Amino acid sequence: MKVGTDAVLLGAWASGNKPSNILEAGTGCGLISLMMAQRFPRAKILAIDIHTPSIVQAKENFARSPWPERISAKEISFQEMAKRQTEKFDLIISNPPYFIDSLKPPDPDKHLAKHTSSLSYAELAEGAFQLLQKHGKFSIILPFANQLSFDACASSATLFKTKQLNIIPVTGKKPNRVLSEWGLSPSDLLVENLRIREDAKMYSPEYQKLTLDFYLAL
Predict the structure, then answer these.
(1) E strands present in the chain
(2) Please, what are the averages of pLDDT over each run of 10 residues along the chain (218 residues)?
């Protein structure tokens, strides 16, 4: 799967509180885990996925990075991880499957990456609840139209939203993505907006500021 704007946005935005133990669910090629290693120099990162070729590629990318000793990849589902893992994480991050009712693509790799049949919103929220440290954070990016569905699942799993960033693709358009952060305790909710582009040719100042450390040129 090619690198997309969603992954870049999530990797640049997810914060936690100087996390030292990070889990990425559904790592793909490992981009977000690499961004976490760059942003948090003391953090250990575990990247998981159920897609064997993705894990192979992620391991290759981690080995060639400046941080091979701090990032590892494991082929395991998030559901199984939540059942087996005894260690808790202070940041969990995921760019999850998001198509719920649309037709499934014929390519099985794209099906795994994009459809919630491999990881439902309820399973994602419940797993985050099981795997988070007491003061940990769970960060996720979703289509804007799906946010209410995930909110309901997260509330049922006793997660509390602390931040939300609505992503506007270009000036004048409605939001098409939303990033949200969740914790185990109630908190005041901070809601903000971010435009990716001012027009078809120019990135917005706020997008450039957020992603500056990760692009060679904008």
Answers:
(1) 21-25, 44-49, 71-75, 89-94, 132-143, 160-170, 177-183, 190-199, 202-203
(2) 83 90 97 97 97 97 98 97 92 82 46 59 97 97 96 98 98 97 97 96 95 82
Within 8 A by CB and 6+ apart from 123, the residues are: 78, 79
- The b-or-e profile of 100-135 (16+ CB within 10 A means b, else e) is eeeeeeeeeeeebbbbbebbebbbbbbbbbebbbee
Q: What is the pLDDT of residue 98?
A: 72
Question: What domains are defined for the chain?
Answer: 5-211 (3.40.50.150)
